[in-house]
Amino acid sequence: MISLTIRRLAGSRAWKPPLARSMVLVRRQARETIPSTPIKVLRTVDAVRKWRKPQVLDHRIVSLVPTMGALHEGHISLIRAAARESHQVVVSIYVNPAQFGIKEDLASYPVTWDNDCKILAKLDRELADDGGNLGRISAVFAPTTNEIYPSGFPGQEVNSKGSFVVMTPISELLEGRTRPTFFRGVATVCLKLFNIVQPEKVYFGQKDVQQTVVIRNMVRDFMLPIDVVVGQTSREPDGLALSSRNVYLGERRRNVATVLNRALKAAEEQYHNGVLDRDTILKAANSVIADTLNEQMALGPEQRVKYEVDYISLADPSTMQEVTNVDPKVGGILSGAVKMLPVEAPQPGEDLGHSDGPAVRLIDNIVLEPSA
Ligand code: AMP
Predict the structure, then answer these.
(1) What percent of the chain has pLDDT above 70?
(2) How many CB atoms lie within 10 A of CB 60?
(3) Are residues 70 and 194 in the same domain?
(4) Which first-to-last residue range defines the signal peptide (predicted)?
(5) Of the candidates 342, 339, 323, which has an alpha carbon nearest to the alpha carbon of residue 331?
(6) Are 170 and 178 in contact (CB under 8 A)?
């Protein structure tokens, strides 16, 4: 009698045993796609593993393009490169809290899921029409923080306890000096993403040059069977490197934001003229930065833009350690970080940028290619 009642209830629409309900949820997630595309949206490690398994048997080359979303042409160029060289491209979209410092812009970091989906849908149609591609975008992996940190999120403090990948000394240099937890967060999340997706190739942007060296070193030192491919920096026509953070700038600071690229180019010119010593090369960059700041300071507070230089560096390409002379057989990396301060005396109706224009840290770099 009792079992009959349960069976009847179970058969009714109003009730489902919890297990069956969660299975429906998993099945629904597995079927989720970006609207009007075949691109799967995978949200769990389990869903990625289920998707990945048959690709091994079919000898498909799977690549991964890790991103934090707010997609722009820089991300798109990496996805295009991945589609040329692999059958299945997975794009991950995950704003990893572990790579933000406690005082950084995690809370206001632009999250633009619907627009990202539109960009990926348009790009996938282009990839389908272009016969030069080996593959297309197969899936977007968009996990939650609970999924990525199964033992609980370890926190953003320098002394947080948890399972981390720590790459030293490189993580302590340059970006790491100002952002001491940044590369620990990046290396840790990338190892997780690599283990989840198991890509043959991963694509990173030259824009974040120190990140590319950290990832290359991690792949080498932990014997990961992965090719690291680095795509060149995508820029605005005036040279500003594209970045998801450029939306914070607003018009006034956007116009001055080219200063870093102009400074690095001036230094590059020295190298192309045959100069190899650090002081002369970096002097050219520092002059552009000082001259531009002087020009700004001659303006009134309602017009000017102030910035602070975090570093201007000339480093070895494989260690990111500073060099006193460029070895022309090895080349070098010119890189810099400049903090654009919030505008003074905002004018009525002035476009201050996303989140009312907080301080924005811009980074950029130029590779000094070795001479033949
Ligand atoms: P993000 O979403 O900022 O974490 O960046 C994801 C990937 O896109 C990283 O490998 C970045 O180096 C790369 N990327 C970001 N901006 C650019 C750019 N302007 N040009 C090329 N790659 C970029």
Answers:
(1) 92
(2) 16
(3) yes
(4) none
(5) 323
(6) no
Number of domains in the chain: 2
Output the domain CATH number for residue 332: 3.30.1300.10
Whole-number average pLDDT of the chain: 92
CATH number assigned to the domain comprising residue 130: 3.40.50.620
Using DSSP's 3-state secondary structure scheme, residue 106 falls into coil
Among 64, 68, 75, name the best residue to mutate to test ligand 1's pocket (greatest count of ligand atoms within 8 A of Cβ): 75
Q: Return the best residue to mutate from 64, 65, 73, 78 for the ligand 1 pocket (most ligand atoms within 8 A of CB).
A: 78
Name the residue range of residue 278's domain.
246-368
Extract the tokens encoding 102: 């406690």
**What pLDDT sits at residue 17?**
40
Q: What is the mean pLDDT of residues 220-239?
A: 98
Q: Are residues 49 and 113 in the same domain?
A: yes
- State the pTM of this model: 0.91
For 301, residues 6+ apart whose C-beta sits below 8 A from its C-beta are 344, 345
Q: Are residues 48 and 164 in the same domain?
A: yes
92 lines ligand 1 (CB under 6 A): no
For 8-35, give the DSSP string: HHHHSTT---HHHHHHHHHHHHHH-B-T
User: Is residue 184's pLDDT more than 60?
Assistant: yes
